[in-house]
Amino acid sequence: MKFKTIIATVLMIASTNIFAQSDKDKQVMADAEEAKMELQKMDGMDRFFNNSSGYVIFPNVGKGGLIVGGASGNGVLYENDMVQGMASLKKVDIGLQAGGQALTEVIFFETEEALNDFKDGNYELSANATAIAIDKGIAANANYKDGVAVFTKPKKGLMADLSIGGQKFEYDEMEK
């Protein structure tokens, strides 16, 4: 009887660690999977999904500003089409901008080195990085720049934006 209790306790602790994501993380994962399916249907995107070392999908990035602005969102990092961890995006910028917008952002890493830089926390998109707004097959002609390709897909809202600022990221690997 004592042996069964010990085994049950060990299994309970192990399963708690495996499923330790918060409800918020679970929702972000579900939203990322939905965004991934939608993105994969777009012309040219399959090349990036199939040939990258990894990618991070931020399914719900909120962006807004009036001269000073910002953006933030939570996402999921995939490697070999498997969830590896959670990421967060933060951006503060200044310039000619007005409005608010919700969008999906996906960053593809061409090389293991670029992917590892992201995972190690050594990664940020500079103010001069270019994100390609994907719509109706525009991804077919897109290429990596410095080992990274960034795509955004507007969801809601409208924003006029001629601002300068960089995106910073944090990454938390999932417990295995």
From TrEMBL:
| Ranges of residues in domain Ysc84 actin-binding | 91-170
Look up and give the organism this protein is from: Maribacter flavus
Query: Does Acetylation show up as a keyword for this record?
Result: no
Record protein name field: Lipid-binding SYLF domain-containing protein
> Which residue windows are coiled coil?
none
Which InterPro entries does this one have? Ysc84_actin-binding (IPR007461)
Which Pfam families does UniProt cross-reference here? Ysc84
Any signal peptide, and if so, which residues? 1-20
List the keywords (alphabetical): Signal
Q: Does the keyword Cell inner membrane apply?
A: no
